[in-house]
Amino acid sequence: MSAIIETRGLVMQFPSTRALDGLDLVVPPGVTGLVGANGAGKTTLISLVLGLLKPTSGAIEVLGLDPATDGPRLRAMIGYGPERNVLPDDMRAYDFVRHFAEVKGLPRDEARSRSSDSLYLVGLGEERFRALGTMSTGQRQRVKLAQAIAADPSFVVLDEPTDGLDPMQRDEMLNIIVEVNRKFGIDVMLSSHVLEEVERICDHVIALDAGKLVAQGTMGDLAGASGGVEVELVELDDRPGSVDDVVERLTEAGLTVQRALTTLTVGGRPDDELFDQVTVAIAAAEARVKRLGVRRRTLDDVFTDDVVTAEYAGRVGGDA
Ligand SMILES: Nc1ncnc2c1ncn2[C@@H]1O[C@H](COP(=O)(O)OP(=O)(O)OP(=O)(O)O)[C@@H](O)[C@H]1O
Fold first, then answer.
1. Distance 174 CA to ligand 1 centre (A)
2. For the segment 231-280, what is each residue's pLDDT rounded down to a tens digit?
3. What is the predicted ipTM?
4. With a 6 A CB cut-off, is 250 part of the ligand 1 pocket?
5. Domains and CATH numbers, the chain
6. Residue 105: exposed, middle, or buried by beta-carbon count in 10 A (0-12, 13-18, 19+)?
7. How far is the CA of 81 from the centre of ligand 1 (A)?
8. Which of 42, 65, 109, 249 is deepest in the core (most CB within 10 A)?
């Protein structure tokens, strides 16, 4: 299936900040998490996707269109939940959602029924006639989501949809977002600075740091790549020191080993060669294995490893 978003060498230079610095990325269908710390460039990228900003250089294509020239057409096709609190306090949730559905081109009757449906989907069916100013942060975040999906878009972009929510509200919001994708086939890109929530619900991840791409791929790719091998050994009464022996042999073989009691994490790409090296060391030390497998990296690891690598490469003159 073709990409939802594709960029090549995308640069956004503000007078004093290079917010995006040569991004080559692909957002496929599904739920994509755009992650990065504050100031990483997430909102800037979203603004370029929606055609609200024009890139300084490079190319961006969204749903096969150029946002810089097809912005209005694209914005009619994409649902958008902005980060900031943009809801008018004195308007009722239902009127707000219906208004935007009509602005997006839905006939009045359809806009009415879709607004009610979307508000029910986000769990605000009973509350839909309440004024927005009387709603909690969690409810207001849900209204923004209902507004984003009301006009039946094929793609929605949600900027920090869990911002300001407590852990329970956050879980509920994440579940609704998954439902939007799985039940209604709407592709989603959400930005977040909370890695754990992206890990939980996203099929695909784009990780940014200071305007540069740190990593992109499926969660499976990122978690498996160079996560190393994890092996849990059994300390045998008749082979005291066998775990120490394994550590020593692996270290002598030039591998990085971290030990927590009888569990060892051996760094490197978890390919056949690494597994062979680990099993040979275990056999030579006559140790017993309880568990052996690929160590799954978390997004935290992706940031730590890859940002460090990028910084190091920058110091020594590389182009990472
Ligand atoms: N209109 C603007 N003019 C000048 N600088 C800007 C503008 N918009 C963003 N920036 C700068 O560009 C960088 C990226 O900002 P951006 O808002 O895209 O980051 P973000 O990842 O969305 O952060 P946050 O999570 O805090 O929203 C920041 O250094 C920010 O100060």
1. 24
2. 999 887 878 889 999 999 999 999 989 898 999 999 887 788 889 999 99
3. 0.96
4. no
5. 5-87+135-223 (3.40.50.300), 226-294 (3.30.70.100)
6. exposed
7. 17
8. 42
